[in-house]
Design a protein that fits this description.
With 260 residues, the chain is an alpha/beta fold. The chain has nine helices and ten strands. Helix 3 runs parallel beside helix 5 and helix 4 crosses helix 5.
Length: 260
């Protein structure tokens, strides 16, 4: 049986009188790699901001389990967010700190671990993302792909149940993007985390996405939902088909066995 980790009901997002998206309804189940997709300006990153508590809905509810996040008090919301890790598009590493210091920040802020325990945890998290031995490097001293992985290590610092990614492959070459996709899927499998990923990268969508929602900037609502391959196979909406094929209906998809 599937277990709903996040449930969005009748969500409307707006900046003042400017409507972004309306009447969004979807469920993220435990173990999903859930993809939020759509063209530029459709509200993908804005939806992420609503999900992680940085933007208040104009209307509607976001449930974590059975708890309505935006009707909870400040302490309850903080407890929910302790279960969440976020990798922002830029990686958001502090340039004046080493990778070890960046990853240690949430551990120092939110745990009672000793300095030695934190150092061991930092090394473990870096090893998980393939950066063992890079503790003393600064962000400027490593590649963009390595910065993304370091950002992922920091997002995992508090062993979150849910990981959010905002355009994780943005700015990466195809090989680095593929390695990051494999890493995300591997961490989902090994840690039992649930992943919500905002992206427009088709390779990532088809390679690791298990479920998805398609946001349309014209109608300002979701016009398709479901596993990406199923969405492409069953949708009759030209906007969805054009997006998922890049106007190339004969484009090959990654092998089906890559997704689970």
């Amino acid at each position: 049986m599937t277990e709903a980790v996040i449930t969005v009901e009748n969500l409307t997002m707006a900046y003042g009188d400017f409507l972004i998206q309306r009447d969004l309804n979807f469920t993220v189940n435990r173990g999903d790699i859930f993809v939020v997709m759509g063209g530029s300006g459709c509200g993908k990153s804005t939806l992420l901001m609503h999900l992680i508590g940085l933007q208040t809905p104009a209307k509607g509810s976001i449930f974590y389990g059975e708890q309505d996040f935006w009707r909870a008090n400040a302490r309850q919301r903080e407890q929910i967010m302790r279960r969440v890790g976020v990798l922002f598009q830029s990686g958001a590493l502090l340039s004046s700190m080493t990778l070890a210091e960046n990853i240690a920040l949430p551990l120092m802020e939110f745990t009672l671990l000793t300095s030695r325990q934190i150092a061991k945890m930092v090394s473990y998290k870096l090893a998980l993302v393939g950066l063992a031995g890079f503790e003393d490097y600064y962000p400027s001293e490593i590649s963009g792909g390595m910065q993304k992985r370091a950002g992922l290590a920091r997002a995992m610092a508090l062993d979150p149940e849910i990981l959010y990614f905002d355009e994780p492959s943005a700015g990466l070459d195809p090989i680095s993007a593929k390695l990051l996709d494999d890493l995300i899927k591997g961490l989902r499998d090994s840690l039992g985390a649930t992943v919500v990923m905002v992206t427009h990268e088709l390779a990532s969508i088809f390679a690791i996405g298990t479920n998805s929602i398609f946001l349309d900037p014209e109608t300002k609502t979701a016009i398709a939902a479901g596993p990406p391959r199923q969405m492409l196979a069953e949708s009759s909406d030209e906007r969805v088909i054009r997006f998922l094929t890049r106007d190339n209906p004969k484009a090959e998809l990654p092998p089906l066995e890559a997704i689970s």
